[in-house]
């Protein structure tokens, strides 16, 4: 089984950059021992990965890091969210558990069986979720200690058409959705994102943003924004290749990084 230390990667940026580009859902890799507990055939699993993976968002973050005036740090999940979803929090886990998508998913995007409902999530949480959370907490703490603040920009994508698992997908599906937190998303960061990306909407079809629990609701020096990019703007859906939109979006994200770095 893949060692937890190799399931994610912190790619260093400029020592004085407060920005961490967090890319949690770009990967498709599932260790063999985890795959054994997934109740889908190979073709079914490939289709599910096409739907659930935020394909190429790691490349968008890579382009942005290369273009930014001050190179941001990047924290990238190297395993599929079907192993564990590192962004589940206690205050939302109950709602997502209703559709089988807590920290360890038991249902597919269309409500089919992914794992047995009675699966013991503990070993996967211990092996993958907790080390990831600790490492991300340490990365944010390091930026705080070094620069006096930290800016987490969560890089995601979402399908142009609503999938059945989406609990709040009935609203608009803009080219870029900005997920916010009432405590951690300052107006200046929102303004910078609007300027960088153009047409955006707030918290539709997905809301909120990721802040490690140690800082959540406690440290205003930690600011955060989720950037949800509609997939048809940069790739062939559901799981196809990236197109020219990827470079444009990487440039827009670099503009946001530069604004957040100032």
Describe the structure using short key phrases.
alpha/beta; 34% helix; 15% strand
What can be said about this structure in brief?
The chain is an alpha/beta fold and 262 residues long. It has helices at 32-35, 42-52, 57-67, 90-97, 122-147, 187-197, 245-261; strands at residues 8-11, 19-23, 73-77, 150-158, 176-179, 200-202, 222-230.
Report on this structure.
The structure is a single chain. By secondary structure, the protein is of the alpha/beta class. The chain contains 7 helices and 7 strands; from the N terminus they run E-E-H-H-H-E-H-H-E-E-H-E-E-H. It has helices at residues 32-35, 42-52, 57-67, 90-97, 122-147, 187-197, 245-261; strands at residues 8-11, 19-23, 73-77, 150-158, 176-179, 200-202, 222-230. The longest helix has 26 residues, at 122-147. The mean pLDDT is 93.
Shape: globular
Residues in helix, %: 25-40%
Cα-atom radius of gyration:
17 Å
How many angstroms does the end-to-end distance come to?
42 Å
User: Runs with pLDDT <50, length 5+?
Assistant: none
Tell me the structural class.
alpha/beta
| Helical stretch tally | 7
Strand/helix succession: EEHHHEHHEEHEEH
The oligomeric state is: single chain
What strand order characterises the main sheet?
1-3-2-4-7-5-6
Question: Mind summarizing the main beta sheet?
Answer: 7 strands, mixed
Number of E strands: 7
Q: Summarize model confidence as the mean pLDDT.
A: 93
Strand content: 5-15%
